[in-house]
Amino acid sequence: QISEMSLQWTVISWFVYAEAALVLIMCLPGVSVQRWRRILRSRLLRKFDSSAYVYFNVFFGLLILLLIDAYRKMRQHALEELSIDERVNPHGFALSRMRKFRSQVNFTLSAGALLLWIVLKWMVSSLIGRAFLEQDLSIERAKVNDLQRKLDEAQRKLSSTLAAGVVNGSVSDDGSDKKAD
C-alpha cells in the first residue's frame, strides 16, 4: 500500500510541476494572444475541444477526491500520533509523525494541483476570449477604416462639386442658386 500511495503522489507532484510550468509559459510576455489562439486551436487540441468540458470536470472531480483522501489521511495520522506515547514507543511515535508529515505534504500537493488546474482553465478561457475579442476588434477597425475612406471620398467629391459651382458662379453669397449674367 505504501508503494501505491507513493506512486500516486509522485504522479500528482509531477502533475503540479507540469501545471506550474504551463502557467509560467502562458505568462511569457513575448507570445501574442493570436499565437496562443493558434496553439490552443491546433488540430491536435481541436480533437479534444468538443469534450474538453467533460475532461476538465472529470479531472477536477478526481483532484477533489484526492484532496478529500489526503485530508482524511492527515486527520487519521494526527489521531494516531495522539494515541502513541513518545516515552513508551519512540520509534512508533517517530513513524507516526513521519506518516502525518507525508499526509500533510500530500494534502498540500493535491490542493496545489486543484488550484493550478482552476488557474489553467481560467487562463486558457481568458486567452481564447481575448483572442476572439481582438479578432472582432480588428474586423471592426477594418469596417471603420473602410467607412472613413468612403467618407473622405464623398467629402472630396462634395468639396470639388462646391468648388466647381463657385468657379462657375452658380452659388451666391446667401447660398441660393442664381445664374450670373
From TrEMBL:
The keyword Transport applies. Residues 5-132 form the BAP29/BAP31 transmembrane domain. May play a role in anterograde transport of membrane proteins from the endoplasmic reticulum to the Golgi. It is a multi-pass membrane protein. InterPro entries: BAP29/BAP31 (IPR008417), BAP29/BAP31_N (IPR040463). The chain crosses the membrane at residues 12-31, 52-71, 107-133. The keyword Repeat does not apply. It is found in: Endoplasmic reticulum membrane; Membrane. GO terms for cellular component: endoplasmic reticulum membrane. GO terms for biological process: endoplasmic reticulum to Golgi vesicle-mediated transport; intracellular protein transport; protein localization to endoplasmic reticulum exit site. Keywords: Coiled coil, Endoplasmic reticulum, ER-Golgi transport, Membrane, Protein transport, Transmembrane, Transmembrane helix, Transport. The lineage of its organism: Eukaryota, Metazoa, Spiralia, Lophotrochozoa, Platyhelminthes. This is Endoplasmic reticulum transmembrane protein. Pfam families: Bap31. It comes from the Eukaryota. Residues 130-164 form a coiled coil. Belongs to the BCAP29/BCAP31 family.
